[in-house]
Design a protein that fits this description.
Length: 303
């Protein structure tokens, strides 16, 4: 049933085989055996994609209910033992994942040796169901429609520049002055025009800036700023070492950027396994103890 649900969701024997690490023929035989046992065709095969038959569609919904009950039953046993166990496949943002989450996750793995963590580091937003992700960490101002998430922390951006750049171009005293400066933009979409938000007179306002250099990685942009190439916005886990060394300084501190949320995303609203809940609780507890260190990120900023 679990294999059938995966094939139905991905629409591909090969994709499921690759995801679980077996030969495609293994998946094909399992589904064929299930159909033989039931005496009906569950899937219509074509050269391009698999589609469910009417019987397959009805069976899929019942499988999801049954597997949810199985998961709940097994989780109940695990909770009785108070020992999280099983696999957790995680989707983690690159820089934040490496610099902040990795130490927490390694400590979690040592504390709960019966839990096997499978950590995928990437700044790309992925479909959790299609990728087989049990838990993803995302940092954003607004969740997308349909996201199933728990807020486990908060953060905001800092505006940074090198002393050398400020000496040559002057220090902006108001966000509106940024339009006259060279800026370095974090983006996943390209383009040379970006907008940053600041609190002005009690309300957040957007200010367009001219971006002379864009990247989808904060470490690159922070290094560019440290070399005097422009002004940029960065979360603390990127900025800390640059600020400590004096290569970058924070500016426009009287005009704070918006606070963002650090979220744990789940693939569905079904019963959450005990091991996943324990991990979410652990991350939330530790991230909430770092309000100042986590007080700096921008929308969809998984740097």
């Amino acid at each position: 049933m679990q294999l059938f649900v995966r094939v139905a969701e991905l629409g591909s024997f090969s994709a499921v085989a690759q995801q679980i690490g077996v030969a495609r023929s293994v998946v094909t035989r399992q589904i064929a055996g299930l159909e033989a046992h039931l005496g009906v065709k569950l899937m219509a095969r074509s050269t391009r994609r698999l589609t469910l038959t009417s019987a397959g569609t009805a069976y899929l919904e019942k499988c999801r209910v049954i597997l949810n009950l199985v998961e709940a039953a097994e989780t109940g046993v695990a909770e009785e033992r108070q020992t999280p166990r099983g696999n957790i496949r995680m989707g983690l943002p690159l820089s934040f994942g490496l610099k902040r989450l990795a130490p927490m996750l390694l400590a979690f793995a040592r504390r709960y040796p019966e839990v096997r963590l499978d950590m995928e580091y990437s700044d790309q937003r992925v479909n959790l169901i299609e990728e087989g992700i049990d838990l993803a960490i995302r940092i954003t101002r607004r969740l997308e429609s349909g996201d199933i998430a728990r807020r486990i922390g908060g953060s905001r951006l800092r505006l940074l520049a090198a002393p050398e750049y400020l000496a040559r171009h002057g220090t902006p005293m108001h966000p509106s002055e940024l339009a006259r400066h060279q800026c370095l933009g974090y983006t996943n979409t390209g383009g040379h025009s970006i907008a940053w938000q600041f609190m002005v007179n009690g309300q957040f306002e957007s200010f367009s800036v001219r971006s002379c250099l864009n990247a989808n990685n904060g470490e690159v942009l922070a290094e560019a700023a440290a070399q005097g190439m422009g002004i940029t916005c960065h979360p603390d886990f990127v900025a800390d070492s640059f600020l400590a060394s004096g290569r970058l300084v924070e500016i426009l501190q009287d005009f704070p950027c918006p606070e963002l949320g650090i979220y744990a995303l789940l693939p569905s609203n079904r019963h959450v396994p005990h091991r996943v809940r324990v991990l979410m609780d652990t991350l939330a507890e530790q991230l909430m103890q770092q309000p100042e260190r986590n007080n700096s990120l921008r929308s969809d900023d998984n740097r």
